[in-house]
Amino acid sequence: MDIIISNSSSQPIYEQICTQIKNQIISEKLAEGDALPSIRSLAKDLKISVITTKRAYDELEQEGFIYTVAGKGCFVAERNVELIREGNLKKIELLMEEILTLGASCNLSSDELIEMFRLMSAGNA
């Protein structure tokens, strides 16, 4: 499992871990039932606090991405694709609200914002 921590990121380290593990689960690099590294092992590999790693795992468990078996470790949970999709849609909506606010502060119309998005998505196609 590859996790890269950026000390220059504004995102807290535990969130970086959560995001990267979620992305690996969603992209199926980590499959249902796969064992995750132990909290201590991951903390040692990333050279971070065990508390930070535990917080990341706790968040992932609360969100239903992983589950813990006492004495055995943490494992990738069965993916609820619809739940993951709904969470991502909510994030998109929040980002779009921020875009609308920033666009209004620059006197950009909805049509101009849509055109910017079209140009950007054409470059990513």
In a nutshell, what does this entry contain?
Keywords: DNA-binding, Transcription, Transcription regulation. This is GntR family transcriptional regulator. The chain has 125 residues and is mostly helical.
Give a description of the structure:
This protein has 125 residues and is mostly helical. It has two domains: 13-76, Orthogonal Bundle (Arc Repressor Mutant, subunit A); 81-124. The protein has helices spanning 13-26, 39-46, 50-62, 81-105, 110-124, and strands at residues 66-69, 73-76. A two-stranded antiparallel ribbon has the order 1-2. Strand 1 and strand 2 (73-76) form a beta hairpin. The longest helix is centred in the C-terminal third of the chain and has 25 residues, at 81-105.
Itemize the secondary structure elements and their pairings.
Blueprint: H1 13-26, H2 39-46, H3 50-62, E1 66-69, E2 73-76, H4 81-105, H5 110-124
Antiparallel strand pairs: 1-2
Helix pairs in contact: 1-3, 2-3
Keywords: DNA-binding, Transcription, Transcription regulation
InterPro entries: Tscrpt_reg_HTH_GntR, WH-like_DNA-bd_sf, WH_DNA-bd_sf
GO molecular function: DNA binding; DNA-binding transcription factor activity
